[in-house]
Design a protein that fits this description.
- The structure is a single chain.
- With 231 residues, the chain is of the alpha/beta class.
- It has one domain: Metallo-beta-lactamase, Chain A.
- Helix content is 23%, strand content 27%.
- The chain has six helices and 14 strands.
- It has helices at residues 36-45, 66-73, 148-157, 182-188, 197-205, 215-222; strands at 4-8, 13-19, 25-29, 49-54, 76-80, 90-92, 97-100, 104-110, 119-123, 126-130, 133-134, 137-138, 167-170, 180-181.
- β2 and β3 form a beta hairpin.
- The longest helix has 10 residues, at 36-45.
Length: 231
């Protein structure tokens, strides 16, 4: 089973809708505030009822629509327990399983490094990696309690131990790519393939990336599910 992949061009963010094989329930991963109308229209078009809104982490480059979607649909917001998002309905921990539809299961993996609380989600041979593992790259590790060493461990010990044929659906892409596989990333990822932990840490420490423009707005907003403070 494949997800429905949607894209926000302003933040280069992927949002995913997972639909149950039977029944009408669905889950959405990493929705973007400016795209809530698109996302609800897609759900309506397919006759789907939203059961969960999932976040892979507290994003620094866009504001989530999780709170708005929860209000509109009655879905539960499920978030990584280490990301300080107290208004969520469900605080996720490593090894948790989320169930929706008749027999659908999403396995939760704690994959810190981009942020301390970052998580990935496994469903039917698909893994949604957020900013932990990107296509031919990975998320930065220089803010929000990021750690290059932790990210290296998350990828090598959790994600790269999944079957090679598992499809990798990242949280972002900046080069017009949409999906990869665990096997391809293990062999070819320009930051991680055939690289030991120390050289990866050195690589990440020398990226000298600019500070995300929206970080001071996005992170506090996302820690409140994208809703105004006090809402």
């Amino acid at each position: 089973m494949h997800p429905i992949q949607l894209f926000d061009p302003e933040s280069s963010t992927f949002t995913y809708i997972l639909r149950a094989a039977s029944g009408r329930e669905a889950v959405i991963i990493d929705p973007v505030d400016k795209q809530w109308e698109r996302d609800t229209l897609q759900l309506d078009r397919l006759g789907l009822k939203l059961a969960y809104v999932l976040e892979t982490h507290a994003h620094a480059d866009h504001v989530t629509s999780a709170g708005k979607l929860r209000e509109m649909t009655g879905a539960k917001a499920a978030v990584p327990s280490g990301c300080c998002i107290p208004p969520a309905d469900v605080q996720l921990h490593h090894g948790d399983v989320l169930r929706f539809g008749d027999n659908e299961e999403i396995k939760v993996l704690h994959t810190p490094g981009h942020t301390a609380g970052s998580m990935s989600f496994v469903w039917h041979g698909n893994v949604f990696t957020g900013d932990t593992l990107l296509i031919n790259g990975c998320g930065r590790t220089d803010f929000q309690s990021g750690s290059a060493g932790a990210l290296y461990g998350s990828v090598t010990n959790e994600l790269f131990t999944l079957p090679d044929e598992n499809l990798v659906w990242p949280g972002h892409d900046y080069s017009g790519q949409s999906v990869s596989t665990i096997g391809w990333e293990k062999r070819n990822n320009s930051r991680l393939a055939n690289r030991d932990k120390q050289s990866f840490i050195e690589l990440m420490g020398n990226l000298n990336l600019p500070r995300p423009k929206l970080i001071d707005i996005a992170v506090p907003a996302n820690q409140n599910l994208g809703l105004p403070q006090g809402a």
